[in-house]
Specification:
Radius of gyration: 18 Å
Distance between the termini: 34 Å
Strand content: 5-15%
Number of strands: 5
Shape: globular
Number of helices: 10
Structural class: alpha/beta
Oligomer: single chain
Length: about 250
């Protein structure tokens, strides 16, 4: 069996650190996946989703010890803190302060602690995938043109959302109380889509950078909405296929 086949088989089996099988993913992976990128979708505040992610990371590491973990939770400006954490140079309190966890992410770090501990124990590189809040605010205010002032990001132009993803975003927009319909002429909805595409494209670009630099496997932890459609679509535009798995019972949240 090829390394890609082994990676897919282990991911689908969901072997845990203790060797126990986890539940099957919510939808099957493609029959011919690119083993270089595996996306693990979560509902951010569900403990079970993060246990499931850790099981799959441990299984994937058996097949590819040189994998890296990409994190939606951390903006790329905080990469140095991730490097220091993995190297054992920061304790938890200092790490959380350095990444500004409460403001940049906000969900309880305890949900992610076992994954971060596993990465530190095995010196697994952690990759900050996201962008800072000031970038998000700028795009929310001025649209994608706001990135002209940030050539350092070099994201290119994102692929437009698929019809299915656009419908999902319209429903999410309405659910936030910003409108009953996802009318493409509605400026608020357009900016909402711009922000989602910013997150998707920024994460895909960082994943592509890591693969281009020689990382053999990037395992990505992100919201299930990003994983089901957003990130894979942007990755394909950048020349990379991916295997997308979503935690059983995960919501469609971003």
């Amino acid at each position: 069996m090829t390394i890609r086949g082994r990676i897919l088989a282990l991911a689908l089996l969901g072997w845990s650190v203790a060797g126990c099988a986890a539940p099957a993913p919510a939808r099957p992976a493609p029959a011919q996946p690119d083993g270089g990128v595996v996306l693990l979708g979560e509902t951010h505040d569900r403990v079970a989703d993060h246990h499931w992610q850790l099981q799959r990371i441990a299984a994937l590491r058996e097949a590819e010890p040189d994998l890296a973990i990409g994190l939606e939770m951390v903006p790329r400006s905080r990469q140095a803190a991730l490097d220091a954490w993995t190297a054992g140079r920061l304790d938890e309190a200092d790490f959380l302060r350095e990444v500004d966890w409460d403001r940049s992410w906000g969900f309880d770090f305890g949900l992610y602690r076992p994954i971060f501990a596993f990465a530190r124990m095995h010196r697994i590189p952690l990759i900050a995938l996201n962008v800072d809040r000031d970038v998000v605010r700028a795009v929310g205010r001025d649209g994608w043109a706001a990135l002209q002032a940030r050539p350092d990001l070099d994201l290119g132009r994102p692929v437009a959302p698929s019809p299915d993803y656009n419908r999902y975003l319209a429903a999410a927009f309405a659910g936030h109380g910003r409108g009953a319909e996802g009318d493409a002429l509605n400026r608020g909805f357009r900016r909402f889509v711009d922000i989602q595409l910013l997150w998707d494209r920024a994460m895909a670009a960082r994943i592509a950078e890591a693969r281009a630099a020689g990382t053999p496997l990037v395992v990505v932890l992100a919201g299930s909405g990003h994983v089901r459609d957003g990130i894979p679509r942007q990755l394909r535009d950048l020349g990379y296929a991916s295997t997308a798995l979503v935690a059983p019972g995960a919501a469609d949240g971003a």
